Batch of 2 targets.
Target 1
Amino acid sequence: MKIRAQSALEYIMIIALTLAIIVPATYLFFRYTSESNTQILDSQISQMGRGMIDTAENVYFSGQNSKIVLQFNMPESVNDIYIIGNRELVFNITTAIGENEAVFFSSVNITSSLSNCQGERCSLSEIADLGLNKISFQSYNNGKQVLISKYTE
């Protein structure tokens, strides 16, 4: 009887030791993966925002009737994109820690189509769709503003 109890106790201790190693390792792995996904999303949003602002400034300084079309692969975490005060490009995103906003500042006047504007806020929600999007940047108003919109052929 004593031998069976000892082998059962040893078996339980081996299982407990194995679980003591596997459970924390699994937790650390999932936490690291979540942090990596957040960093990748931040990097993508930062690259898109800077690229959009740089392109808008290039179009603005190129003068009247200049136009550039860019392609971006929009991540699924982007809920909305809008412009505030013709100078701020805002990405509303959802991450593991909740809803966040990434703001990019422009030195030139940017806007979307006038039908999408309500006061100081102009919506760019049509380009916030998941997947590959073509975005048009066009100078108008005698070269004083840059219109950002979804590109349609």
Target 2
Amino acid sequence: MNLLADSSPVLDVACEICPVSLFKVNDRLNCLSAGESLDVIVGGDDQLRKMAINIKAEGYRIEAVRRHGAHHILRVRKEQ
């Protein structure tokens, strides 16, 4: 499922409860090589806010955020 116009892998944590969603996203981001990206699907505004804070605190860059129905999609890139 390509959501933001390229072939980035997708991780859907919209139905996960915190902190499980944070752990799953951190695990997948840690597996990325420098320069690779991951599309993360999250639920409502509260989950989006918590996820964005966590992603930035871990040193990753959020390149894009797009609304997709009731969910949000974050394009996250691992820096060099």
